[in-house]
Amino acid sequence: GRAVFSRIAADRTRLDALRQMAAAQSPAHRAQAAVLLAAMLTPAELVREIARSETDGIACQVYVASLLAPGEEPGSAAGPDNPARYPRPPRLRGIAAADLRAAAGRLAADPDWRVRYAAVDLLAAAGDAVLPPSHIALARDSAWPVRSHAIEALGAYASTGALAMARACIAQGDPVRLDDRLAALHAFARAGAWDDVMGAFADSAPDVQYAAVGIMLAAFGFPPAVRAALPAQVRHLSDRRARSAARDLVRRLDEETRGSTP
Asked: What is the pLDDT of residues 203-229, one digit of tens each?
């Protein structure tokens, strides 16, 4: 059980054998070896393993999940070395953004869409203020799960270019790309761009209107300017479901406002 796992994970003499196992034909064996390697290697070593072109895609997914796992220590605050909108996960502290970009770039070029999906999370966690070209490519990926995930993650970047790309996604009005447009709403929410979320109240697609109101219903702590602008924006809603949800939103904000008034 756990004791055996701990003993294996602590024995670094097994690294070469586990790497060979990670290249086995059986997906189950590859996954088991990757889990053990993720427990044995340091975060910097995991990043280097991801960057190696011969590293198996299943292993890369396991390594990324390990690197992004929440820890007991808080992530590093945004600053000169980490200008992103959100703190880095604890295990990525001290790793150069260039190394993370290199590893994520290798994942972004993988033929397996599940590996490219993992690249999105690693890129968003790298701490770049400027949207990297590899993330732009992922936001245009041919596989819709990757594309939507990358569009939603645009909200992690503290750059105008990232939000501009999200705005372009929601403005395309293509019913075939509805998932992309809904993902853009989540990018706005992640970035705290509530004016953009409310702007979707006037969208021609009922599902976009309804999703925009739902995202605001799930959030708390709006700035006063957003609270003041909401009643006028609600009038743009044409979808019946969205109008009903908006009434709940306005009611909740009114109750919060009354509750905070001494």
From this structure: 999 999 999 999 999 988 888 899 999
Name every residue whose Cβ is closer than 8 Å to that of residue 106 and which is 6 or more positions away in sequence: 50, 51, 52, 53
Whether 193 contacts 223, CB under 8 Å: no
173 to 98, 107, 178, 179, 202: CA distances (angstroms):
36, 30, 8, 11, 12
pTM: 0.82
Q: How far apart are CA 142 and CA 160, in angstroms?
A: 25
Return d(Cα 205, Cα 202) in angstroms, integer. 9
Question: How would you class 170 by CB atoms within 10 Å of its CB: exposed for 0-12, middle for 13-18, buried for 19 or more?
Answer: buried
113-125 and 144-152 helices, crossing angle to 10°: 10
Alpha-helical segments (H) within 91-171: 97-108, 113-125, 133-138, 144-152, 160-171
Q: How far is CA 130 from CA 66, 85, 124, 138, in A?
A: 25, 11, 11, 15
Between CA 241 and CA 213 the distance in angstroms is 9
